[in-house]
Amino acid sequence: MGELKAFLDSLGVVAKSPYAFVAYFGVIAAWVYITISRHQLNTLKALPEDERADVLKQKYPSFSKTTVSGKEFVELQKHKLLFWGFVVFVVVGMLLGTIAIVRPQNTKGEVRVMLTCPAEPSRVYSGYITVRSLDGKNTNFGEVHGGEAQIPLPYGDYKIQISNQIGTKDDQFTLSVPSLVLTYDCDDYRPKKAR
What we know:
Blueprint: H1 2-15, H2 18-45, H3 49-59, H4 70-102, E1 108-116, E2 127-133, E3 139-144, E4 148-154, E5 156-164, E6 167-175, E7 179-185, E8 190-191
Parallel strand pairs: 1-7
Antiparallel strand pairs: 1-4, 2-3, 2-5, 5-6, 6-8
Helix pairs in contact: 1-4, 2-4
């Protein structure tokens, strides 16, 4: 059951990948072609039989070699188009399924948080980081030393809060790559309230 859940969880990540975009575009292009071709075949079907045969001989050289009527040939071509549309869907499904199966091996990445202050470049910043996933399932803590921290996380959407001697900074980010660098300037912080 755990493998199925991992597979289903990874489909969300796969759906956002560039490979999926190419696959979606391929499916749309195939169905546009199929729709236009079927419309043309329906137009041919409406022609009288002798006229249809002449047009089919011009458009489909293979028609002159068959023994079927023009009406039957049009129906066969429509079925062939549907078959190829089905093949495109199966290939895209297999491609996305394969990516989803392979992808879970690499569903964790790392966030590298860099704290800088151009106004005082010699100053080394430290602080504490809290990272929570937007769905509330993951909470990680980190500590900034020497102006940077590295936090391993599963892919997903997160809220981050950084607290240090300057103040606090709240932000959101999406981790969908093995390594993500977030850089925050001291001007980005909300100053600590005076006591």
